[in-house]
Amino acid sequence: MNTATMTQAITDLSQPAIQQNPWPTYATLRKTAPVSPLKSEFTRKTAVIVTRYDDVMMVYKDPRFSNDMSSNMPFPVRWLMKRIGSLDIMMLKDDPEHRRLRGLVDKAFTPKMVEAMGPRIERIAQDLLDAMAKKDNADLVEDFAKPLPITVISEMLGVPPEECYEFNQLTSSSFDTSTASGLRRITALPNMWKMIRLFKRLIKLRRENPDDRLVTALINIYDQGDQLSDREILGMIFLLLFAGHETSVNLIGSGMLALLEQPDQFAKLRDNPDLIEPAVEELLRFSSPVVYGASRFPTEDLMIGDTLVPKGTEVIGVLSSANRDEAVFENPEQIDITRNPNRHIAFGVGIHFCLGVWLARSEGKLAINALIKRFPNMQLAVPRDQLRWKVGGTNALRGLQSLPIRLG
Ligand code: HEM
Questions:
Q1: For all residues of the chain together, what is the average pLDDT?
Q2: Looking at domain 2-406, which CATH architecture does it have?
Q3: What share of the chain has pLDDT > 90, as a percent?
Q4: Quick one: CA torsion of 120, 213, 100, 345, rounded to 10 degrees?
Q5: Ligand 1: nearest atom to the Cα of 250
Q6: Distance CA 40, CA 294 (A)
Q7: Residue whose CA is closest, atom 16 of ligand 1?
Q8: Where are the chain's structural domains?
Q9: Which residues line ligand 1 (CB under 6 A)?
Q10: 3-state helix/strand/coil string of 86-135
Q11: In this structure, which residue's CA is closest to atom 20 in ligand 1?
């Protein structure tokens, strides 16, 4: 038995070299120090990083881990999050409060609602591809992966068409994690306030003029006399955008890079578009747009693997490392778009399992198939070592800054 905080070197995921290529570090940690000390990006204190599949599963599923991080946040972050209502989000709550909020929102954000968006997602994708086809220097992230999910979610929420442009600009800049650190976080504040005002206006508008979209559905949910307050709806909109915007951008961007780097897999999917379902699962596993979810805090001293982790320690369960654990996946460093079974945990596991899973899968499938169909001979336009991953923001999400391509 060992105590994680004492023995090994401290990993710092914000090191640029690890941000550009984290995989060798995770492989070494899985092998030699599966539960080891980490420099926390929130508190800058020592936390614990967990990298093996089985241990990560335990961290996300065991109810002895709490998601309530409010007492561990530095004061300015706590103050800011409280002001914008984002401390009320269900991702940072435990049961029974989490169960109540999740139960209510599950009634509004349904697979049926997502299915109904399918034709619209396809149309938005085609319009973006039309515009991209006219460009000399196409950037798959900027021109396609970024605008697609934000346009989809703003329509799903019921943002009026005349406000969509402002909404998309504000939300994509506020939720871009490369603006989420240090000075950039402060300069992003005025936009954040504007965005909150916009959300509040939207809730008011939909109270007065209901439609068949998500904000109206959130306002109208009743469950045995219970319903969401305006503050909770605000927190929910905030969470949907925070959890659902950049994640989907990263799936499309990093997923397409993975395919471009393994041309046999690209060709296989191009020639068999019906393989898109297992292909998206494999791209989720391989690229893991969410590196890790919310921090977990043990409510008692407990063992993770053979390491004792004291009560209250911040624990980071690395989903992207679990998804490449050689003990679970054969040839984890290769993509195989027909991999079966594929037990990846890119959407998390346990009570906080991704609420937007249907939307994320639908966007991934429609976007990637549309791209490959329109540009079947596309190629990377720069050498691989010139590609840059986002740095300077949260380490919890991983995605490309840009992906220049030759459309062919
Ligand atoms: C490829 C895209 C996506 C990935 C990889 C992803 C991944 C995840 C993961 C790993 C979690 C669990 C976090 C944790 O346990 O700490 C999560 C939770 C969540 N996701 Fe997603 N997500 C994606 C897209 C979306 C979309 C499109 C939405 C909604 C518009 C969404 C909404 C949420 C919400 C609300 C939660 C919190 C659920 C809860 O606390 O009960 N996600 N997601």
A1: 90
A2: Orthogonal Bundle (1.10)
A3: 70
A4: 10
A5: 1
A6: 12
A7: 293
A8: 2-406
A9: 60, 90-91, 102, 153, 239-240, 243-244, 247-248, 251, 289-290, 293-294, 319, 346-348, 352, 354-356, 359-360
A10: HHHCHHHCCCCHHHHHHHHHHHHCCHHHHHHHHHHHHHHHHHHHHHHHCC
A11: 354
